[in-house]
């Protein structure tokens, strides 16, 4: 059993590690999460090699708390330059495209973060194995932290796909994806941090996540402070194209988002209610492998979002109720 503080299986305890079915520390860092066929799948950065690529680890869970390991969905590959040892591959996010294929998006970079691209990989099953396709700078723009979003119109397997991408030279972009999600088609919006915060020029947030609640879009992100945490923000719009509102805190100001950085927001649609789960990382730059998850209920309604601290909690995947 891990020596670092860890949650009992079946419980979410912010600041404590998840232990998987093998008794190992779940590598749920920079994670993407989707629900397929009633089960939650998570793809995380395996930080075995600290800041450089150690593989994309896949886990599944019935309840966002009891994680089963499925090994590497995408492994280190010395023959593939983008996936070679010593490279940086972060924030794996997966969407199921209208053809039923699982499409993985990645922040693909060099160790000095100068390469700044988005990468694609595809698989027949959520847990992989994924076949790596390529990387690019979308429409010529640098791309570091990413998020993904599908605007569903009521059915499970269709909807317009979007890529969220941090480009500090221009701002945080929302790109519309092609119908199969394998290419970027156009920029629908570019959001910026308040220019007064960055008088030298554009900036914008990173660690982006987008959710739609009651017809309103909520865009989450963090300031660009490396592995250090900051007061993450949320903005709203009635369309992904905006116009986007001013940015607001969604955790107590000065708490640095309870000392965490946004990774994704999970919607748990239940029979009694729809709950939202903030999935964040509390990075430990000296021991990234043991960086703790900070996952909390986030109340999203009427144009505002609010993180609610809990020492330990669960969400019922059937009813949606948080306890
Ligand atoms: C902040 C990003 O959000 C993380 O994913 C990671 O790239 C760190 N920067 C590296 O400093």
From TrEMBL:
Keywords: Glycosidase, Hydrolase. Pfam families: Glyco_hydro_43. The keyword Cell membrane does not apply. The keyword Hydrolase applies. It comes from the Bacteria. Belongs to the glycosyl hydrolase 43 family. PANTHER family: GLYCOSYL HYDROLASE 43 FAMILY MEMBER, GLYCOSYL HYDROLASE FAMILY PROTEIN 43. This is Family 43 glycosylhydrolase. It comes from Promicromonospora umidemergens.
């Amino acid at each position: 059993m891990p020596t670092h503080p860890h949650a009992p299986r079946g419980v979410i305890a912010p600041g404590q590690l998840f232990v998987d079915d093998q008794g190992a520390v779940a590598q749920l860092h920079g994670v993407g999460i989707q629900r397929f066929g009633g089960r939650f799948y998570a793809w995380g950065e395996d930080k075995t090699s600290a800041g450089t690529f150690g593989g994309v680890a896949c886990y599944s869970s019935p309840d966002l708390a009891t994680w089963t390991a499925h090994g590497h969905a995408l492994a280190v590959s010395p023959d593939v330059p983008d996936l070679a040892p010593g490279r940086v591959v972060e924030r794996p996010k997966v969407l199921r495209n209208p053809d039923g294929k699982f499409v993985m998006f990645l922040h693909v970079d060099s160790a000095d973060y100068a390469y700044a691209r988005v990468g694609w990989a595809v698989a027949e099953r959520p847990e992989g194995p994924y076949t790596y396709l390529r990387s690019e700078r979308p429409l010529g723009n640098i791309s570091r932290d990413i998020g993904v979003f599908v605007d569903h119109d009521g059915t499970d397997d269709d909807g317009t796909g979007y890529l969220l991408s941090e480009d500090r030279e221009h701002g945080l972009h929302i790109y519309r994806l092609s119908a199969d999600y394998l290419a970027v088609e156009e920029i629908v919006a570019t959001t910026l941090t308040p220019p007064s915060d960055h008088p030298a020029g554009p900036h914008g947030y990173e660690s982006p996540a987008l959710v739609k609640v009651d017809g309103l879009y909520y865009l989450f992100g963090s300031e660009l402070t490396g592995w250090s945490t900051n007061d993450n923000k949320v903005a709203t719009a009635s369309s992904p194209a905006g116009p986007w509102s001013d940015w607001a805190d969604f955790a107590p100001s000065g708490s640095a988002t309870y000392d965490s950085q946004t990774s994704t927001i999970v919607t748990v649609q239940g029979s009694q209610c729809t709950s939202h789960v903030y999935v964040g990382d509390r990075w430990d730059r000296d021991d990234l492998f043991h960086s703790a998850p900070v996952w909390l209920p986030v109340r999203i309604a009427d144009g505002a979002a609010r993180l609610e601290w809990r020492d330990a909690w669960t969400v019922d995947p059937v009813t949606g109720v948080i306890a």
